[in-house]
Amino acid sequence: MHLREITDDNREAVRALRVRRNQKQFVASVSKSLKEAAKTPEANPWYRAVYRDEDPVGFVMLAWKPPTGPYQGRHFLWRLLVDKRYQKRGIGREALAQIADLVRADGATELLTSYEPGEGEPWPFYRKFGFEPTGEIDDGEIVLRLVFPAR
């Protein structure tokens, strides 16, 4: 599994990725995510397609140390999507591990994310990975933190 830049050659295949029907309330589509990234350059969006071999299987997007806003200077996992055909295979966990390694290599001591509570919410996935609630709520979403051990 690896992360790959989204280019004109793979954009449509990545945009075609879909989550399960009961997950749509928790994660925006790739198309919506790319539009949101374009509309909010101040969030310093960083995104990649998740590939297994030569097949796009997911999408990840971060606010990479935005210069302003509530997450100023911090890394925030904005989107993580694994296509419904490839879920339950460890791809999300592996993509998140790669993201955590990249963020840690950038000097971060933590990675933040958030989720909307509800039936089928992603909290169990994030909890298993080591995220903990910060106690903050952002636009109705529960903010989580993954703390990196000191090196």
From TrEMBL:
Record bears the keyword Transferase: yes
InterPro entries documented for this protein: Acyl_CoA_acyltransferase, GNAT_dom, Sper_AcTfrase_N
Domain N-acetyltransferase positions: 1-151
Pfam families named in the record: Acetyltransf_1
GO molecular function, one term: acyltransferase activity, transferring groups other than amino-acyl groups
Alphabetically ordered keywords of this record: Transferase
Protein name: GNAT family N-acetyltransferase
Organism field: Streptomyces marianii
